[in-house]
Amino acid sequence: MKNLIFILTTTILISLFSSCNKSTASEDDQPKNHTEENLRYQGPIIDMHMHAYDKSNPLFGEVTNPTTGDKYMGSKDVASHEKETADMMEKHNIVMTMISSGSHQVVKKWASMHPQKVIKGQIIINPNEINIDSLKLWHNKGELDIIGEVAPNYAGIKPDDNSLTPLFDLAEELEIPIAYHILPGGPPGGVYFAYPETRASQARPLLIEEHLVSHPKVKIYIMHAGWPFVDEMKALMYAHPQVYVDLGVISWVLEEKELHNFLNELVDAGFGKRIMFGSDQMTFTGKIETAINHVNSAPLTMEVKEDIFYNNAARFLDLSLETIRQHKGHKNHSE
């Protein structure tokens, strides 16, 4: 529980930093230009990065940025968070989503609320405190689809640490993916008041490489796309075809221009088929819409947008052709 509170407190600061730099009205932003490369994608979306909580979550209700005093509103309680997220999923045709939580029971609840839509994950902060047998049992009961989000940086554990080896061994044994969190981990300067064990130098994507080499069959996606280490991320993806990324919090916490520049670097390098959408919505459910709009406003072709919003995740998850046809029969793809 202590580790869960730790990461939840940290994620408050991520969102608060974003709110200090952008008006909450930005959640209704629409792409400004409708050129050939700025058409708005409206097909099915797979969100590879959402969260769910129990009633003790400190993100609910009004929270205050400790550095500025600015106030910010999340969902007021569990019921509101569930409804607001479901409404966003319906509004934006989110047909599947990866839900992770520090509570296994919460993930089970969401899976029961959204049959066939929830990809079940489990937040892991300190791998030394995880019961591998529990993870295996949950998977065998159909209650765990992805190991993650794995975020040991909050405990000061680097991606090359040997304590992660049992998680990769388990993923290999169960033939399920890993969702690995690197950066961002909060607002600038957060190491001094929120997560003292985290270091920016620990977030270099190439640090995870030996785990990949020793577990070549394990599918993995790097949450938040390894920002801001774009050169290392390109090198990692070039060397290891099993590595995908999701956009996570950078889809709304960054200025649009920075997000677009980062996206363009990965796409121009030839990795547009391995970028997946993720909103990292937490209780700030309006950020789902902001994230979608920021990707839609990027100077990318409709083909690349469709890949990011749906096709790449469908391939990563090995969805059946029947499931893909059902998803894509729901709505048109552009306006």
From TrEMBL:
Keywords, ordered alphabetically: Hydrolase, Lyase, Signal
GO MF, any single term: hydrolase activity
Keyword Magnesium in record: no
Signal peptide: 1-25
Gene3D superfamilies: Metal-dependent hydrolases (3.20.20.140)
Pfam families: Amidohydro_2 (PF04909)
Chain ranges of the Amidohydrolase-related domain: 157-319
Domain of life (superkingdom): Bacteria
Name of the molecule in the record: Amidohydrolase family protein
Organism: Marinigracilibium pacificum
Lineage: Bacteria, Pseudomonadati, Bacteroidota, Cytophagia, Cytophagales
